[in-house]
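[recover] target loaded
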């Protein structure tokens, strides 16, 4: 059968003859030219092999291709930088918390004034339980309880004017939003001036 035949190679020996059989004409009759050619059966087998050769499959549509080593290194660097940044933020937050705990534990605020009187204003708001302390740099911190005496929800800008016994004054303001009828709220006002107050006056304006 043809399919069981091993591919044949035809050996064709071409010998140059000069006019007749047995008379060699090249190099004294001692050289022969040999040519190797494929038989028709061998060419057919090679053609079948080419048709059945598997092609390299391309990745399916939408399927990500394998990342190159350079892109993997870049992603790794970005991830390391992000981790380092988060660690630094956590360290700064921890330091801030420790500093706050230290200031509270060291009792850096010193009370310099106390006023338990009730200060009622015509705008429907009143102040009581007033205290003034100095922080560690000497700036006053004013704390008070404010009450809305009107029947409406209101918002105010309250202002405290503090004065020393020898005349210098300083002002601190704070916005209070959506104070319900007869609601009381604790407020805290910070004054940047460095002075020791002996009196305080309140004013308020509706927003």
């Amino acid at each position: 059968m043809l399919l069981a035949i091993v591919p044949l190679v035809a050996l064709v020996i071409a010998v140059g003859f000069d006019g007749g059989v047995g008379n060699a004409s090249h190099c004294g009759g001692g050289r022969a030219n040999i040519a190797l050619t494929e038989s028709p059966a061998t060419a057919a087998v090679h053609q079948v092999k080419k048709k059945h050769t598997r092609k390299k499959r391309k990745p399916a549509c939408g399927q990500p291709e394998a990342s190159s080593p350079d892109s993997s290194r870049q992603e790794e660097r970005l991830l390391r930088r992000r981790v380092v940044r988060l660690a630094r933020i956590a360290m700064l937050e921890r330091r801030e918390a420790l500093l706050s705990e230290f200031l509270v534990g060291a009792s850096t605020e010193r009370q310099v004034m106390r006023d338990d009187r009730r200060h009622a204003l015509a705008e429907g708001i009143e102040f009581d339980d007033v205290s003034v302390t100095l922080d560690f740099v000497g700036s006053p911190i004013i704390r008070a309880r404010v009450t809305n005496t009107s029947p409406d929800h209101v918002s105010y800008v309250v202002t405290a004017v503090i004065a020393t016994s020898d005349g210098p004054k300083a002002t601190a303001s704070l916005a209070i939003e959506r104070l319900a009828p007869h609601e009381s709220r604790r407020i805290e006002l910070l004054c940047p001036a460095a002075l020791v107050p002996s009196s305080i006056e309140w004013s308020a304006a509706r927003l």
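[recover] notes: DSSP finds two helices and ten strands in the chain.
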